[in-house]
Each structure stands twice: as C-alpha cells, then as structure tokens.
C-alpha cells in the first residue's frame, strides 16, 4: 500500500511484520511489530494518520504511521482476518477469501 501524501510504501507479509519503505531510495524506514502471524491486508484511514492491519492471528491493529506504535488491538474474530475496509467512521472486515 502506498501513501498518497508521503510516497512511502507499506508492506505486510507472512513474517508477521509490517515494513515501511522510502520509494525513492528503497531504504527501509520502520518495522511495525505486534502481530503473532502473517499480515493479510493493510488500509489507511482517510487522513493517512493511521494504518490498520488484518492478520492471520485473528486480530486487527491500529498503528500510528509516524511512530510505528500500535495504538489499539481489535479482537473478536475467531480465525484469520483477510480483508479490511474503512468507510468514514466504520470498519468492515472479512474472513473468507473468495476467487472470482
């Protein structure tokens, strides 16, 4: 996922970490640590102040994009969370992967 305001790339993978990258130099900027299993999806809030991550550990985390600090953990799913969507003040999640 690429920030439209800062040109920073955010990536998540099965190594359970989120990394931020400078697109111009390729330099790794930060590592966001907190999930215990792989990252499935990443989304920004509308202002790109917060990054939300969905994980195979069944949790969603809210991160401060500047500091990399985890601000909140959303618990409730019993299995992997595969997708997220932020619409205004609502978060929609999905737990099934469907092929079209």
The poorly predicted ranges are none
Distance between the termini: 22 Å
Q: Major sheet: size, sense and barrel closure?
A: 4 strands, antiparallel
Task: Kindly name the structural category.
Answer: mainly beta
Overall helicity: under 10%
Number of domains: 1
- Summed up, the helix count is 0
Q: Can you give the mean pLDDT?
A: 91
Brief sketch in words of this structure:
This protein has 100 residues and is mainly beta. The chain has no helices and 9 strands.
Task: Please describe what this structure looks like.
The chain has 100 residues and is mostly beta strands. The chain has one domain. The chain contains no helices and nine strands. The chain has strands at residues 8-12, 18-22, 28-32, 39-44, 50-55, 60-64, 70-74, 83-87, 90-94. It has a four-stranded antiparallel beta sheet, with no helix packed on it. The protein has a three-stranded antiparallel beta sheet with strand order 1-2-3, with no helix packed on it. A two-stranded antiparallel ribbon has the order 8-9.
Write the layout of secondary structure elements.
Layout: E1 8-12, E2 18-22, E3 28-32, E4 39-44, E5 50-55, E6 60-64, E7 70-74, E8 83-87, E9 90-94
Antiparallel strand pairs: 1-2, 2-3, 4-5, 5-6, 6-7, 8-9
What labels would you give this structure?
100 residues; mainly beta; four-stranded antiparallel sheet; three-stranded antiparallel sheet; 9 strands; 0% helix; 47% strand
């Amino acid at each position: 996922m690429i920030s439209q305001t800062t040109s920073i790339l955010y990536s998540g993978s099965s190594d359970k970490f989120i990394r931020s990258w400078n697109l111009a130099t390729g330099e790794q900027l930060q590592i966001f640590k907190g999930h215990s299993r792989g990252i499935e999806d990443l989304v920004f809030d509308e202002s790109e102040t917060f990054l939300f991550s969905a994980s195979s550990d069944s949790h969603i985390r809210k991160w401060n994009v500047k500091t990399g600090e985890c601000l909140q953990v959303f618990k409730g799913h019993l299995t992997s969370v595969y997708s997220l969507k932020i619409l205004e003040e609502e978060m929609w999640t999905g737990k099934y992967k469907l092929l079209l």
